[in-house]
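The instructor's notes for this session suggest beginning with a concrete chain rather than abstract definitions. Hand out the sequence below and ask the class to guess, before any prediction is shown, which regions might be ordered.
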Amino acid sequence: MPEGPLDTDMAQEVVAAAAVIASQCPGGSDIDLSSGPREPVPLLPTDLRPKAAAALDRVLAHADTEVDRWYVRERGEQWRGNVQRIRLVLVDPASGPGPAAPRRQRKVLSGQQLLQDRFGVEDAWDLRERHPKGSSAHALADLLERQAGEVDTLDRELRATATRAGETLAQVAEGKYAAVQTNGVLRFTGVELETLGARFALASRDLLDLANRYEYAVNAETDQARAARTAAARTRTTPHIAAEAGPPPATAAPPTTGFPSHRR
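After discussion, reveal the predicted structure:
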């Protein structure tokens, strides 16, 4: 297995293989037959367990990046927790639980930052849970989650592109002129940065507009709920007041004039 971070496909293969090995350990869970091996797995050598745990350490060391790729972050966090539980099962009890896999501090990107500053939440998943399904606020919170993810993706791509360009320029500054290639890498990187920057600005503006619309919808729902409570209170008190006031006074019949009718 190559050194460094694993790509998504290889990380999934590592987790799947480790889950199969862990299923034969004390405390291991059964394999999901719908997505597990098609044929019965023979008894595996026990020396595979520490190797599988070490491979999961590689996955968990870069789990933040994998979690960021999930459309619903809460499910990504659940995936990370499942991988950590598999690792704990694989660790040899005689050697103790072993050191926890290193976890990098999660970088807060622009979309996340706006939601934190504006609403005090990490992502729109928490906002959506505050409102009933079918409401305007719930629908807007769902759009907020998608748009914040788009802004974060562009933010991440911008930073990665700028980092690559900076590394090339740093090599040139150190006198490593071989880094200046003849295929126009810096010129193309500049165009890529400008394009990503324009897309990022547009996505950020749309996210801000959605945040304003969501806030307006929440205030509107609050006003409607307050009006409904006021109307209900009036409904409870009005019959009581009417009963205390008594029946309305009788209306006297109009007096008759005694004149004969001219109708023929």
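Then share the key points. The chain has eight helices and no strands. Residues 71 and 146 are 8 Å apart (CA to CA).
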